[in-house]
Write a structure and sequence with these properties.
By secondary structure, this protein is of the alpha/beta class. It is built from 19 helices and 20 strands. A six-stranded parallel beta sheet has the order 3-2-4-5-7-6, with helices on both faces. Helix 16 links the parallel strand 17 and strand 18. Helix 3 crosses helix 15.
Length: about 550
């Protein structure tokens, strides 16, 4: 047995969990924990400029790895600064543990005292308390397990008076994760699902974010070939089938024109690991009049968006194997739907009009995205901040695998992309991260954390879409024939700001400036910001 301080026990659990790095902002209630994590265990600590940024960095890492990200803040205002990040994580279904120090019990005069449990629960995040010194390790391990099992942020609350107490402890390992058993559906629901598939004349196989591993992809492609169905993905599974025949690309409000025609003709949607939210169903238009089978890893994933005709709880590969077995046993013929379709080109997006190269002509945003897509490193991660610019960026910028795509608009907030890009980079340090962000989002949440990327040597390429306004609000006011001045901003040039913050900035006013961008990308040795000077009136919205 050995005597340790509670904060030393917590640091050891974090180090042993293998879920670093730890993102955070230090204060009196967590600085001992961070110090011990770094000095005693060689842990990597990424210091953010803002507590919300720290929590978002943990979400960005978790989005790429699928495992819980770790962040820590002190008490009171530091915690309340993270509420937007917690809500984003809840709505995105992203696991994260926020280790938040808390005021000592009975310290009623402390300026930073607040009921931390109440504000955390209001976001939809879970809450775990450090109960007593003897349970510190198991309490923290439970928080990590809950985050990954429940797919949401869990706040781990530890008071300053408890964390500084000594405790007699052994050196035994405390498990922080367990392997959930694979589930194969059976019974009437499976029979009904197979009946729907057998009767379908124009089925579509749809993959969501929970169906992007290699085994799931291979299984879904075999199912699609067996029933002669085209394949599609949700936004967050973007790119899963990019090299496959009969690929429709993204199903939903971002669908390509040819894909929309196919979806509207279909009579059955087989959704695997997809929530079927209003974006994917195009406000219900893409599932209207169709039979829908939804497969999810647990019951909570069934009917979160559209209510299916049949819901199956099971692993993707296991469920597909069972479906294929019974289709073959019953000698069900394929649908023949593929015979009506061209194998290639169904996911092709409209070509942009080339930007007018005459002096003073505005850049065409889609044209710039197409050109940048070819110019930027192909082995990238892609992060899209929220805003008017995001829709076309989601469509026209590629990723090599959906695991490398992070969308940050689940809570509808701009300015969350920069920190999540830093977290994503920490998960995949060998890959460059491309972030698309608007001018408003950059000023709201990206400016200070751009310097964090500089300080920590992040390989980051920022495409800053500067139309000198809050774009969505500009479009609303313009369309209502109201004064757009309320949404306009006279920002400074952003490229010099990037230089001042320790990175490098390049401004694009004309197509010819892309040659400077190409050289800057190829020779980058620090975070690079590419400022696109865009015209508010010519920017596309939805």
């Amino acid at each position: 047995m050995a005597s340790m301080k509670v904060f030393e026990v917590l640091a050891r659990v974090l180090a042993d969990s293998g879920r670093g790095p730890l993102f955070g902002v230090t204060g009196d209630a967590n600085v001992y924990l961070v110090d011990r994590f770094v000095t005693a265990h060689g842990g990597r600590f990424i210091a953010a400029a803002n507590e919300n940024g720290a929590a978002l960095m943990a979400l960005g890492l978790a989005s790429v790895t699928g495992r819980a990200g770790l962040a820590t803040v002190t008490h009171g205002p530091a915690l309340t600064n993270t509420l937007t990040a917690l809500a984003e994580g809840v709505k995105a279904g992203t696991p994260m543990v926020l280790l938040c120090g808390d005021t000592a019990h009975g310290d009623r005069e402390n300026l930073q005292k607040i009921s931390q449990r109440d504000v955390i629960l209001a976001t939809g995040a879970g809450f775990e308390e450090l109960h007593k010194p003897e349970t510190a390790a198991t309490d923290l391990a439970r928080a990590i397990r809950r985050a990954e099992a429940e797919r949401r942020p869990i706040a781990f609350n530890f008071r300053t008076d408890i964390q500084r107490q000594g405790v007699e402890t052994g050196i035994e390992d405390v498990p922080v994760a367990f392997s959930a058993p694979s589930i194969t559906p059976a019974g009437d629901d499976l029979d009904n699902a197979i009946g729907i598939i057998a009767a379908a004349k124009r089925p579509i196989v749809l993959a969501g974010r929970d169906a992007i591993d290699d085994a799931a992809r291979d299984a879904l492609l075999r199912l699609a070939e067996r029933i002669e169905a085209p394949v599609a993905t949700t936004l967050r599974a973007k790119g899963l089938f990019q090299d496959a025949d009969y690929n429709l690309g993204i199903m939903g409000t971002l669908s390509a024109p040819a894909a929309i025609d196919v979806i509207m003709k279909s009579d059955c949607i087989l959704a695997f690991g997809a929530g079927l939210n209003f974006h994917t169903t195009s406000e219900g238009a893409f599932v209207d009049g169709k039979r829908v089978v939804q497969v999810a890893a647990n019951a909570s994933g069934i009917g979160r968006g559209h209510t299916p005709d049949v819901g199956l709880v099971g692993g993707v590969a296991e469920t597909v194997e069972k479906i294929l077995y019974w289709l073959d046993e019953a000698d069900i013929p394929p649908s023949g739907f593929r015979g009506e379709l061209e194998p290639k080109g169904l996911a092709e997006l409209p070509s942009p009009r080339p930007t007018d190269s005459s002096d003073g002509a505005p850049l065409d945003y889609i044209d710039m995205l197409v050109r940048l897509n070819d110019l930027l490193p192909p082995d990238r991660l892609l992060v899209t901040d929220a805003g008017r610019h995001m829709v076309k960026a989601m469509q026209y910028l590629d990723v090599p695998h959906p695991r490398f795509y992070v969308q940050t608009a689940s809570f509808g907030s701009i300015g969350l992309g920069m920190p999540q890009a830093i977290g994503a980079a920490a998960a995949e340090p060998a890959r460059p991260v491309v972030l698309t962000i608007g001018d408003g989002g950059f000023m709201l949440g990206g400016l200070t954390e751009f310097n964090t990327a500089v300080r920590h040597g992040t390989d980051l390429i920022v495409i800053l879409c500067n139309d000198s306004c809050y774009g969505a609000e500009f479009a609303i006011l313009r369309d209502k024939q109201m004064d757009t001045a309320l949404s306009r901003f006279d920002w400074p040039d952003f490229a010099p700001l990037a230089d001042a913050l320790g990175g490098r900035g390049v401004t694009v006013r004309r197509v010819e400036d892309l040659e400077t961008v190409r050289q800057a990308v190829e020779t980058r040795d620090r975070p690079l910001l590419i400022e696109l000077k865009l015209d508010a009136d010519t920017m596309p919205f939805w």
